Structure formats: structure tokens, C-alpha cells
């Protein structure tokens, strides 16, 4: 199975995890997914009153410079660890 196939499989499995991940893990998953699919963050950081948008942006921005394949591997590993408890 190719990296992209494994990544898409992990993204599908992430929707059916046995328990809801912590907010920290959800932000990690978001950042890794975005880095893996889109590369480095772009656009302006959301305003101070958009707490959720700002947290998501920061999670993605924290991965700046991480290669897309590396981010996909980290995403797969995180989903696997959350799926196995």
C-alpha cells in the first residue's frame, strides 16, 4: 500500500476512533493532515477572538518546514496510536 493510500485510510479511520481524542490530539491531527495535504501554512492568522481558528492555524504553522510525506507518516502513526488506545 502506498503512502497516500495509507494516509487516506488513516483519515477514514480517524472518523471512527473508539473514543474522542483530546483537544491536543485533535489539533495535532489537524496540523499534520493540513501539512501532509497542503504543505506549509498560508494566509493570515485568524483574529484574537477566533479561538478555534487561531488554535488550528497555530497547530498547522507549528509544522512549517515539515515535509509532506513526513507529516503523512506522523499522521498515520498518531491515528494508529489513538485507534489502539
UniProtKB/TrEMBL annotation:
Cross-referenced SUPFAM superfamilies: Acyl-CoA binding protein
Transmembrane segments annotated in the record for this chain: none
Alphabetical GO biological process terms: fatty acid metabolic process
Ranges of residues in domain ACB: 3-85
Region: Disordered, residue numbers: 1-20
UniProt keyword annotation of Nucleus present: no
Keywords noted in UniProt: Lipid-binding
Record bears the keyword Magnesium: no
InterPro entries xrefs: Acyl-CoA-binding_prot_CS, Acyl-CoA-binding_protein, Acyl-CoA-binding_sf, FERM/acyl-CoA-bd_prot_sf
GO molecular function, one term: fatty-acyl-CoA binding
PANTHER family (UniProt xref): ACYL-COA BINDING PROTEIN 1, ISOFORM A, ACYL-COA-BINDING PROTEIN, ACBP
UniProt name for this protein: Acyl-CoA-binding protein
Top-level taxonomy: Bacteria, Pseudomonadati, Acidobacteriota, Holophagae, Acanthopleuribacterales
Amino acid at each position: 500500500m502506498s503512502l497516500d493510500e495509507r494516509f487516506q485510510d488513516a483519515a477514514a479511520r480517524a472518523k471512527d476512533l473508539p473514543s474522542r481524542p483530546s483537544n491536543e490530539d485533535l489539533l495535532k491531527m489537524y496540523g499534520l493532515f493540513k501539512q501532509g495535504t497542503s504543505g506549509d501554512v498560508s494566509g493570515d492568522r485568524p483574529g484574537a477572538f477566533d479561538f478555534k481558528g487561531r488554535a488550528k492555524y497555530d497547530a498547522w504553522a507549528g509544522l512549517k518546514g515539515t515535509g509532506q510525506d513526513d507529516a503523512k507518516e506522523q499522521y498515520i502513526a498518531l491515528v494508529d496510536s489513538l485507534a489502539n488506545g
